[in-house]
Each structure stands twice: as C-alpha cells, then as structure tokens.
Protein 1
Amino acid sequence: MSSRVCYSYSQTASCRFGSQCRFAHDEGFEVANDSNRRETMHERSQTYAQTPLDTFFATFPKFEYDSSASAPLEFYRMCDEFGWNRENRGDRENREREQASRDFKDALVKQFNDIYGTDVNDLTSWRTLCQIVHVSPIPDTLESCREAVKATHVNIVDLVDTKTTGEPVTVFVSEVDLSQYTITTGKFFPRDNAYAGGLLRYLLRRIINPRRERVSRSGNKMQSRRRRR
C-alpha cells in the first residue's frame, strides 16, 4: 500500500474501494477545538493526500501510474497497455477507453481546481498563475494580473503538470505555436467540463483553430482577427 493518503477518504471519511484502496486511510485527521491550533482536514490533505488524478489512476490497479510524469502522457501509456485502440470503435475495449477518457478529463479539471482555485475574482489565484507563467514583477491588482496572464500563451495541461513534474511552464510567442505544441504532445485540456470553476473557464482558449498569422508588408508576423461566429 502506498504511504500517500487517500484523497476521497481525507475529504469525506469514506472511500468506495474500502480495504482494497491502494492509498492509506489515515484515521489521524482530526480537527482541534482550540481555534489557535485548528487544522482542517482539507488543509492537511493539500500536503499529504491523494490527488484527483491519483484517485482516477487508482481505479486501474493493474497500471503502474507514475505520478511524477505528465498526466495525459500517463493516460495514453495506460491506453496502450490495455489495448484501447481508437480504431476499434464499437467494441468493449473502445467503450472502456471512452469511459476512462471522460473520468480522466474530470480528474484533470478537479486537479486544476485544487491547485489554483475556482474563484475568478480571487487575487491570490491570479498572482499564483502570474508566478507560474513567469510574469515579473507580479502585479498587485486583480485587473493587472488578469491582463498579464491573458497576454501569455500557455498550455493549461502544463499548468497542472508543473506541480508534479517540476517542469517549468513554457510560454509561447503566439497562439499558433501553442496550438502546434498542443497537437504534437496531445495535451488537450477538456472544454465545457461540468467541474470547471470560474477561473478555469476564464482561462480556456481556442487552441485547435487559433488566429492565423499573416505577414505584413514589412515582413513582421501579425495575427488576423477571428471571424465572429
């Protein structure tokens, strides 16, 4: 059994896997009565508990999940090991992959929420994002933080991965470069997910069909305006 604490158990004191869970069900999470020493289960679980992605991969005990690797790359590796081929549409393996894909997307969104929060008006969350995407100096106001983050082109999966892989988030010079990177790596972040908070919805951008770059007479690249839909 892993020494890491089960995320579900740490949050709700219950786990659908029971004694078969790969992660520890720590009975020691208690809330002190003394307000000066109060430590909530949630606060401690942020350091020690199983994450939403851990919870997802734990449902596939035959797969050796590497929590220090990129989450979508681990998902693709698992699909390969289980023989979940997209071309075999309609068979049992494909249905299993589709269900796993939906569950994985939910876990990815929940993981983002756990790391950065869900409140689009929370200054702390925006300042954290500024730090992650290498904005310097970090602005002091909400509006300035928003503008700084909006001016960057980053892959949202990378924003999640960086907390576990330790790899810095790459900032791209254009949406076109970001789109190419996303397609090449397969790091697609789910859109319109039911678990997406306000902050995440604000960040999600069009990366499959980015604004096309055109070249001006001076030879400089320019991004054309998207047609309204």
Note: The first strand starts at residue 213 and ends at 215.
Protein 2
Amino acid sequence: MSERKVLNKYFPPNFDPSLIKRRKMPKDRQQVVRLMAPFSMRCTTCGEYIYKGKKFNARKETVEGEEYYGIKIFRFYIKCTQCSAEITFKTDPKNTDYVAEHGAARNFEPWREENPADEEDRLARLEEEENDPMAALESKALDSKREMDILDGLQELKSRNARIERAGKEGSEKFLDRVSSGLEVGDREVTRKLTEFEEQRKREEEEDEEEIRKVFGRAYMDGVPDIELEEGGGASSSEDDGEGPTTPRDGEDAAGPGPSSIAAAAAVSTASVKRKLEAVEPTPADLLSAASKSIVEKSFPMAPPKKKGKNNALANKLGIKLKGK
C-alpha cells in the first residue's frame, strides 16, 4: 500500500519497456462519463420531458468520418429516465452547440430560430472577400455609405426633435400666460362678488336690527326697565305720574330721536304706554285682571289641606302609650 504513494518506483537494471505488450484497444471504444443534459428534450418513445442540466451516466465515443476543421465530433448515449430508451446526441462545433440525433426531440427555443441560408451567405461572402481584395473594397465602400445614410437619418431626427421641443416650450409658455391672466381676471371677479355679498349681508343685518328695535325695543328709567306696550290708537300717552326724561332706546342717540325713529313713528300709528316696574318681581296672579282671577278661582277652588289624624290603632295593639295624650 505504501508503494502507490511514492513519487519514484523501483525499476530493475534489466528492465526493457519494449518487451511490454501493448493492449489493443478498438478505435470506436466507448468511455463512461458523467454529464448533464445540454438541452431540454422530449423522449420520442414515452413522451417524458428531460430538462436541461439533468445528470446522466453516459457513454462517449468518437464519431468516425466526421470532423470540422480538424475538430473531432463526439457522440453521447444516455437512457430515458421513464422508459430507459436509448437517446443519442452529438457535438456541433460549427455552431458551438449539440444536436439531438436519435431517441429524443429537442424542445423549441425561439432564440435559436435563425435562417441558415443567411448564415451560409454571410460565410460565403466572407470567404470571397478573403480571396478577392476588390470585392472586400466594394463591400467596405457599401458599408461606409450605409453608415453615412444612417448618420444623416439620425441627424435629421435630432433636428426635428429639437424643433418640436422648442415649439412645445413656446406653446407651453403662451398657455401658462393665458392661464395666469385668466386666473387674475377670475380672482378680480370673485373678489368683486364677495364684496357685493358682504355689503348686501351687512345691509340685511342692519334692517333686521332696526325691525327688532321697533318691535322689542325697551327703555330704562332709574335703572329699572320699562315695558313698552303697543296698542292700536292715535297719539301716544304716558301714565307716569311725572313727566321726566326717558332713556333712549337701543341704537338711538341721547340728544333726541333720530331720523329713522321719526320716520317709523310717522309710518306706524301706534300708542306706546310705558309702565314702570316695581323693584319686586310680580307673581303671575298679580298680573291677571280681576275678571281673570274670578274665573281661575271658580274653576280651581283652593280647599285648605286636611290635617292628618293620628293613627293610634297600631300603638294600642302593641301596648305602646304615646306621649301627648
């Protein structure tokens, strides 16, 4: 066992390598290799799908009679994972790929869908250019002309895009100016309408206050409010004992009645009777007239409350003697 780990092995003095017989190996000898499926395929026997990258123990052999510029082509044998049918594929050095040969069909791959005729034409043209310098010069001239045409088209597109961009900027500026001017006009209109609305609201509030003062106006004398009673009649009369100065109503000046009150007095022919309230607030019964008082007393007679008699029955039963008897 230690002999296999050494670097140098012992050879006897009489060793002759020419006397060793060489093994005869067949040219199409197969080797067992471990590989992964180079493409996704479908078994033609059972229909099982084999995805790309699945590992197999394959047999490899060299294809006899097929080469590509001196590069050998190899064939691989694998078995289907479902039915164990034999599947073969070989290398394709021309396209740096693999080709399904037997037992399976390669799945469709759109990126590999190319026209082989165009590829062959391109290869033939390259070979011709290599052999004919005049053809190479003509192809270069055609390529330069094509490039010039492409550059001219690009320059035209750039100029047109720049022109459109400038026109768009000018149009957008004009549009913004129109919008801003319209907004200014609209703001002025809105401000004017708001001012008119505020003025109208103030006028209505003043009219309402004037009407309230006319209907619910109250005067004050000696710190005690007077009740103003309006009765239908001609001229106004006062029931006060003495004619003294009266305090102005709300909103009137102390010097005298204003023009609004004069106009209201002229328009409405009413008699105002002022009565001074006492310091003590009267009861509702005092405010009624004599006739109303008699009607209320007849309808709701006020009987004096009955005195509760003392219940001594329970005390007698219990034998309790109450005090005060």
Note: The CA atoms of residues 88 and 184 lie 84 Å apart.
Protein 3
Amino acid sequence: MDYSKNSLLAAPAIIFLVLAFYICVLSPNSGSIPFLSYHESNCPHSNSSTVKLPVKDELELALDEASMPNKTVIITVFNKAYVEQIEDAKATMLHLFLESFWVGDNASSLLDHVLFFALDQTAYERCKFERLHCYRLVTEGVDFGGEKLYMSEDYIKLTWRKTQLFLDVLKRGYNFIFTVPFVD
C-alpha cells in the first residue's frame, strides 16, 4: 500500500471536521457545550439559557425618544381639530403651538422633548408628517376625534384615559410636564 503524505494528513482533518460538525450542529445537546454557549439555538430540545431583554412597547419607545437625560418629557394631547386649518385662519392650532417654541426665549430646544399624544388617526398622521415625537392614544370603542362636551360621557372617558396614561408614564419611571396647546 502506497499512501502519499497528503492523504495521511487529510484523513485526520476530515475526521475532525465531521466530528466538529456533528457536535456543533447535529448533536441534540449542542446548546450545552461550554465553548458554544454564545450560540443561540431555536431548537426546542436546546437547553441553553439566553438572556432575554425586555421588549419595549410603542409608548416606551416614544417616551425614550422624547425624554431629557433625566427622563423628563413634556406631554401634550391633541386631536384633528388642532391639525385642521379653519377657513380664515393663517395657521393650524398645532402650528401656532409649535411656533410658540420657536419664538420663545431659549424654548426651541424644548421642542425636542415634547411628546404629542394623538387622540385620533388624523392627528397622529399630521404629527408624523411634521416629524414630531408622536404616540397614538387608542381607546377601544371611543372616538376622540371630535369635540367632547364638558361632563358628557365621552368627555369623562377621555379624562380618565388621559389620567391612566399619565399614571402609566409615571410607573415607567418618567417625569412629565403636561401642557395644553391652547391659543387665546
């Protein structure tokens, strides 16, 4: 039998690669190998432990994006009445509200920390169009797009929904300043 030097070296290498492939990929206990512990397996039989980071919901993402370093955010709530232009008006209520930050003394940097809670889809779409920090406040079975008469059932639902929202913001560890986009 005449074996060349190359084939003698190749045989152990091939055996090593096949063995490594079996251990790393095909073995049912591949997730428990210490030097492969970084490998995240989607197999149901894997018993490797992975650290799961908490998933941030839309509100948490919006708060995180708009907050100051000390976790303070300026909150305002608005609906389509604030984004639609009235017939003889030069600007919408939203634009007047934004302008107050631009013309105020040292107030323009605060606009980066305003989180707009849109009560309806029209307001949310306008908020996104203006590239502001926006969160769509949804309440099942209630349309907050129109005017709510003081102390009506919908007005009370809106008031409680805002209160729940503010409580949720506080529970998440944020501070807030609430302002109303009101022009007199």
Note: Strands lie at 72-78, 114-118, 133-136, 175-178.
Protein 4
Amino acid sequence: MGKGPGLYTDIGKKARDLLYKDYQTDQKFTLTTSSLTGVDITSVGTKKGDLFLADVNTKLKNRNVTYDIKVDTYSNLFTTITVDEPAPGLKAIFSFRVPDQRSGKVELQYLHDYAGISSSIGLTANPIVNFSGVVGSNVLALGTDLSFDTKSGNFTKCNAGLNFSNADLIASLALNDKGDSLTASYYHVVNPLTNTAVGAEVTHCFSTNENTITVGTQHALDPLTTVKARVNNTGKASALIQHEWRPKSLFTISGEVDTRSIDKSAKVGLALALKP
C-alpha cells in the first residue's frame, strides 16, 4: 500500500478493477511502438458489431512534461499536457479537444501522506468546477467529489466515500448521485502467491428501490495467465482468460452469457495488445 490515502477515484478501485476491468464483448487490437527518442505511438482498432472505430495516440515525454495527442475515427484531436512535480506532490494537467472550443480544462492534483486533492475548471465563460478531496491514511480515508455549474449555479455532482484498507482486504462505501444511490464494495486477497482474490459490489438506488449485486473472482493459473469470472443478480455471467505471451503483450478472450435466456447466443470478446 502507498503512504497516503490517494485520490477520490482510488476509493473502491480494487473491487471495480476485479469486477469490470478487461471484460468486453467487442474485438480490439492495440499496437504500440516506441522510438529511441522517447516517442510512443499507439494504434487502436475496435469492432463493435458492424461498426469499426480506430484511433492513433502519440505520447512524448520530455523531462517531467508529457504530451499526449490522440486522433479518433471522427477526426477529433485530443491533446493532454501533463506536468509532473512542478512542486513536491503536485501534478498539473491541461487538456482540450479540437474542434470543440468549450473542451479546454485545467486540472491540479496534489498528493500528501494524509490527503489527496484534485481540482479542475473548464476554460469557458461559465465553466464547470470540479473538486474532490480525500483525508486520512492508507488504512482509513474519507472523501468527497463535487461538481458545480457556474452557469446554472447548481451542483451537478455531489458524492462522498469511505475507504478501509489493510494488507489483504479493502472495503469501501460511497454515496453517489446526490444521495440517491449507495454503493458498498469489498475486495479480499485470498492467496497472494497465486493472485487469487474475490470481490463484490452492491448498489442500492433509493428512488427506484432497486439493488444491483455483482460478485467476482480472479486466479493466476501461472505467472503469465490469469482467469477471472463474475456474475450479477440480473443473471449475466462473464468470464475471461488473459495471457501475457511476451513482456507487456497481452491476449484476452472474454465471454458473457445471460443465464435467464440460455437460448440467446453468448457474447464473445477478443483483445490483443502488442507492446515492444
């Protein structure tokens, strides 16, 4: 575990990664090439049904400044400039999208042994201001996540979260959607030698009185191969196997079946990531 509580986005992240990361029902191919000058170029192609999407991402790092430029299928240009450690514990991020003139945003992140703060503001006449803060330690942390629309004068987001961690267990509780939903998550390392872990997430929506429950597990068959499985209370069951066939290059196959409609075809996703 790290020294500090991290950022608000870290609350419940271990359980979310276990239950949702790398699961997909599309076909995705990723190729990354690197040059001796420190330029990384990543090409991504994704097939979603009859639709094919592609983007090219170029990343250049010069000392503590990283330039990230991406062009997608619709000729949108995404640019992110990140400055690491302009002051101890501080990170500055500037991003914008062309041709959207209202997409410019400046974000500051600050990490301390007992706090983590992230604040951003849009570069428009009436910007949306975001603020999230966490106080505590790497064992117990309490945080909030807010968004304020200066044009309407209203809070568009108001969340709060609590996180507890120890060597093999992480539990979190989050109040989202301006108090309309409550999410509890749990992550437990069963065997660190085989990377075996279990996780669960329960969400209750107060306005609809509905519950969503997802449980899952992961296990490393060998140092290069991992299997994962999950199921939720709507009857959707998913599984995947991921193999690192060479350093940093991954092949993933995943599938999803609706146990309440066995007559429907299972959804299968493939992902191949090649890195030098």
Note: The CA atoms of residues 92 and 208 lie 40 Å apart.
